[in-house]
Design goal:
Jelly Rolls, two-stranded antiparallel sheet, mainly beta
Length: 136
């Protein structure tokens, strides 16, 4: 019985801890820019090894090469307008500020910032970041 009481106390302890609120003003984002000019500002998780949240900024006019992701991407547009089109698809729907997009894992696609201004999105990926080029 004593072991059960100790185990119960250990399990319950995190629930009793004070929660912490994280507030990060936009001017405090730690942007890391790739050689292609795409910038990532980590919000939660390590994008190279696990699921993560990040702010992503693409220069106006950026068009990715055809590629796939190993994990699904979920995004909410903050600024600019983007398209995400499956290879061979004629869909050209633009998603702008407040809009949502989801790109399934393994789907060959092209992502484009189609606005005259940079595209900024809050991105969640349910596993580590990757970018696997594909041929059309």
């Amino acid at each position: 019985m004593k072991r059960l009481a100790i185990l119960t106390a250990l399990i319950a302890t995190p629930a009793l801890a004070d929660p912490t609120i994280t507030l990060t003003p936009t001017d405090a984002f730690a942007w890391e820019t790739t050689p292609e000019g795409v910038a990532f500002a980590p919000l939660s998780g390590d994008r190279w090894s696990e699921a993560y949240f990040a702010m992503v900024k693409l220069p106006a006019g950026t068009v990715s090469p055809p590629h796939v992701k190993t994990f699904t991407m979920y995004g909410v547009m903050i600024e600019g307008e983007m398209t995400h089109a499956a290879i061979g698809s004629e869909v050209t729907t633009r998603v702008g500020p407040g809009g949502y997009y989801e790109v399934p894992a393994g789907l060959p696609h092209i992502s484009s910032c189609v606005s005259d201004t940079p595209c900024i999105t809050m991105l969640y990926q349910d596993g580590a970041f990757d970018f696997v080029p594909v041929t059309q």
